Amino acid sequence: MKKKTSSSSSLLPPLSARHVFWFGWKLVIALSISLCLVALLRLQYSSQESDDDDLSRSSSSFSSSSRFTPRRSRISNVPFQGPPKVAFLFLARRNLPLDFLWGTFFENADVANFSIHVHSEPGFVFDESTTRSAFFYNRQLTDSIKVGWGEVSMIQAERLLLGAALADPANQRFVLLSDSCVPLYNFSYVYSYLMASPRSFVDSFLDLDQKEGRYTPKMSPVIPKIKWRKGSQWISLVRSHAEVVVDDEVIFSVFKKFCKRRPPIDVSKGKQNSSVMLSLISVGNTLIEVSCLFANMQKLQKQHNCIPDEHYVQTLFAMHDLDGELEKRMVTYSLWNESVTNMENKGWHPMTFNYANAGPQQIKRIKDIISVYYENEHRTEWCSNNSTRVPCFLFARKFSRGAAMHLLSGGVLGPFDASVLFDTQP
Ligand SMILES: *[C@@H]1O[C@H](CO)[C@@H](O)[C@H](O)[C@H]1NC(C)=O
Ligand SMILES: *[C@@H]1O[C@H](CO)[C@@H](O)[C@H](O)[C@H]1NC(C)=O
Ligand SMILES: *[C@@H]1O[C@H](CO)[C@@H](O)[C@H](O)[C@H]1NC(C)=O
Ligand SMILES: *[C@@H]1O[C@H](CO)[C@@H](O)[C@H](O)[C@H]1NC(C)=O
Ligand SMILES: *[C@@H]1O[C@H](CO)[C@@H](O)[C@H](O)[C@H]1NC(C)=O
Ligand SMILES: *[C@@H]1O[C@H](CO)[C@@H](O)[C@H](O)[C@H]1NC(C)=O
């Protein structure tokens, strides 16, 4: 017995070391697989749980809103004094860098014919110290929210702007503008163009790009796939349509649930939610954990992937069967970089106009456009305001200060007053 023990002990060390090694190796693999599974399940469970929460809420409001009979909390034809107004709604990051240009634009307007509302970052006040144009003084919303570009907070900001403008019954047209937008015509032209159209200008088309998964079947049955639309965020609405947007809770809550911002694929982000796996990677068991990490990241990607500002209003209007009340095009021009063939990059990166490419010829070329071709639907949209053929674009976006100065000095917005360019404030 003793001998055996000793002999086995003399024999065993290499054997048991191998055993221990293999056992340990298997244990690590088993452990990492199970941790991986647990992490995935937790992710699944937590997203499921919140989905269920929200879906039960949204489907109950769905049924109570009686299948998209438009809920109109305000009566569209509230009487008001004076002329109908165009509401200019600015979505700004902070200040309005092109305020000097808009100042000239509004100077040539009748103050009774328009109103201005600005959504800027919370707490940002428009006054002498932050804008060169008195038209913007105190025009910021007091209930603005922190906006993440490409997040659902963006459409919430739009809804806040529309809501604020609806408070004035004289506002009959509602134009959404970014802080880099410029007008291409004088005020009276823009005013009569918009007022002449009883329809909203919303480019809305079928979103056939399903591989990107902008639409997720989880949105069904509240939003069926056939109602999913895509289009530009920079729209112009008539009053009744602005009310549809502000009154909507059902579609918005679905977007809120399923259109979370896509987290960038980088390790530091992964660390937050996949710390277990990352620490395992450091042990050296790379293959399994890395694939597990990627499964997780892919899931996050899928889950958060839908660009709300390019789908919300369009899909909402399709749900309300308003397609027939729209001019399915936009009045705001942007130039896509032709050399970028990938649709996705195109979607995110319109070209910025600078001083050099905002000269009279370029501006004229934009103003001369009278039709738009929608590739997805093989549809050519001839631009009209209530069946009168008109140029397509009233505004253009992605203008730098230099480009805006060039435009202004061209005198297209009215008499050109050079002093606005030399007023260095702010
Ligand atoms: C505004 O622009 C239009 C078209 O460009 C022009 O016909 C009209 O005379 C301008 N009006 C004023 C008041 O400048
Ligand atoms: C202001 O509105 C009135 C009434 O709609 C219109 O006649 C007038 O031309 C407008 N003024 C400008 C500068 O657009
Ligand atoms: C829009 O159409 C109306 C006719 O419905 C026309 O009188 C008006 O001049 C047009 N506006 C512009 C800016 O072309
Ligand atoms: C649009 O055109 C129709 C028919 O041409 C006309 O009855 C209507 O008043 C016009 N709408 C506006 C807002 O000018
Ligand atoms: C990680 O999870 C937390 C809560 O579990 C969440 O607040 C955070 O947004 C997640 N981070 C990423 C990058 O998804
Ligand atoms: C278009 O994009 C390409 C590649 O991203 C870039 O090299 C080029 O300068 C861009 N052109 C313009 C006009 O922005």
Name of the CATH class of the domain at 85-261 and 304-421: Alpha Beta
How does the overall form come out from the CA principal axes? globular
Question: Total strand count, please?
Answer: 15
What would you report as the Rg, rounded to the nearest angstrom? 28 Å
Number of helices: 14
Straight-line distance between termini: 95 Å
**What percentage of amino acids are in beta strands?**
5-15%
**Ligand species:** 2-acetamido-2-deoxy-beta-D-glucopyranose
**Which bin fits the share of residues in helices?**
40-55%
Stretches with pLDDT under 50, minimum 5 residues: 1-13, 44-66, 264-304, 339-347
Structural class: alpha/beta
Largest sheet: 4 strands, mixed
Instruction: Write the CATH architecture name of the domain at 85-261 and 304-421.
Output: Alpha-Beta Complex
Order of helices and strands: HEHEHEEHEEEEHHHHHHEEHHEEEEEHH
Question: What is the CATH T-level topology of the domain at 85-261 and 304-421?
Answer: Spore Coat Polysaccharide Biosynthesis Protein SpsA, Chain A
Q: What order do the strands of the largest sheet run in, or round the barrel if closed?
A: 2-1-3-8
Report mean pLDDT, rounded to a whole number.
77
GO molecular function, one term: glycosyltransferase activity
Region (Disordered): 50-70
Membrane topology: Single-pass type II membrane protein
InterPro entries: BC10-like, Glyco_trans_14
